[in-house]
Amino acid sequence: MASLQSLRGMADLLPEQIRLWQHVEATAREHFRRSAITEIRTPLLEVTELFARGIGEATDVVGKEMYTFLDRGERSCTLRPEGTASVVRAAIQHGLLSQGPQRLWYGGPMFRYERPQAGRLRQFHQIGLELLGFADACSDVEAIAVAWDLLAELGVGGLELQLNSLGSSEDRARYRELLVAWLEQRRGQLDADSQARIHSNPLRVLDSKNPDTQALLAEAPSLASALSDASQARFAAVQQSLKALGIPFVLNPRLVRGLDYYSHTAFEITSSQLGAQATVCGGGRYDGLVQQLGGPATPAIGWALGMERLVLLLSQNEASVAAAPALDLYVVSRGEAAAALALALARRCRQAGLAVERDASGAAFGKQFKRADRSGARWAAVIGEQEALDGVVGLKDLRVDGGEQVDKRLTPEALLVALAAGPPRP
Ligand code: ATP
Ligand code: MG
């Protein structure tokens, strides 16, 4: 019978990869704790309308990429393609916004039916931040700094922060008219995707990946020139504050988020080491979204970072791989009585907080010691037939060449004390 395979674009995370993932997750969790940002967990499945309203029908995500189906009750459901809409729905549904501003983060799988390639999957993972009820320019910079510092703490180098301002909704409405008129006059010179977007989502044309369209757009009216004085002053304040924090950035007037509820700050953090899928983290201000989803008018800013792309960057960097934790103790034993003592010893040490693996193979000691070396453990506990009879354990320092046995006869309790106290002396 043919063996079954996972679906295209849906990856298994195998044991050898998981340490790096857990390292990223643990670092992020600690980073958010220090930033007074609380985790929120929402369902993977939501009513389809949430994303139609919360992301927008005119986007690729809603238009082409969603996993949507009818459940057994004939309701249209969608596997979440991103986290923001769900977090905002939950905040409205549970009245969180009446309790004051919310500092929230989330993590987990997202689903988009895209063409899979390096750094682009159909089930992928994001970590994201949402600051709900925050209006001032410093909040934009705080959100950016949390992302920037997390990536720095993880040791990701060579990153670039790209920044733009989309202005207020009035600014954008004015600009939209200018842009649509300009694009209409050049319809024949645009790629097919961009032609289709002229009216549905004209700002996204600025983001086109087509080189001919990009060349043409060099002459297009600029969004920056359409910003009101107040919007320009706000954007200047964001830049000033980033400079004061020493966070470098480049202005990218083509960086857009094509939906009406996005406003003012938009940013991406990119890496030149990722090829075509260069964006690790993207975010911006979405002052109109909470209201769009039926909540009270609430200014907000957030971002999401792609775990697969981040892990890809980190796996190119040996220091961050080595930061993942290893075993403390590897227990080898031979014979039935020895195995029973090994089991009790492993359990006792785990209860005391040590990371312990018990070799259950019953193979020759030589083979078990090879595995002990490969395990990365600091110590090996050795239990042969005689040790089992006497109720004692041998201890071997696996970091010393040849693994010299430092103390032949320790009771399990004495071994615990010795390991807790650090390296025992012969
Ligand atoms: P892209 O232009 O690469 O498609 P996007 O604008 O669709 O990105 P967002 O919706 O802003 O991406 O999601 C934030 C981050 O999530 C991206 O910067 C990226 O790191 C990651 N991401 C998005 N889609 C995928 C995917 N299909 N596979 C892996 N990571 C993804
Ligand atoms: Mg995309």
Automatic annotation (TrEMBL):
What are the record keywords, sorted?
Answer: Aminoacyl-tRNA synthetase, ATP-binding, Cytoplasm, Ligase, Nucleotide-binding, Protein biosynthesis
- EC class, as a word, reads ligase
- According to its UniProt record, the EC number is 6.1.1.21
Specify the domain of life of the species encoding this protein. Answer: Bacteria
Is the keyword Protein biosynthesis in the record? yes
Q: Name one Pfam family in it.
A: HGTP_anticodon
Which GO terms label this protein's molecular function in UniProt? Answer: ATP binding; histidine-tRNA ligase activity
What residues does the Aminoacyl-transfer RNA synthetases class-II family profile domain cover? 1-325
Matching entries from HAMAP family are given as:
His_tRNA_synth
The UniProt family comment states: Belongs to the class-II aminoacyl-tRNA synthetase family.
Assembly description: Homodimer.
According to UniProt, the name of this protein is: Histidine--tRNA ligase
* Species name: Cyanobium usitatum str. Tous
Name the gene for this chain: hisS
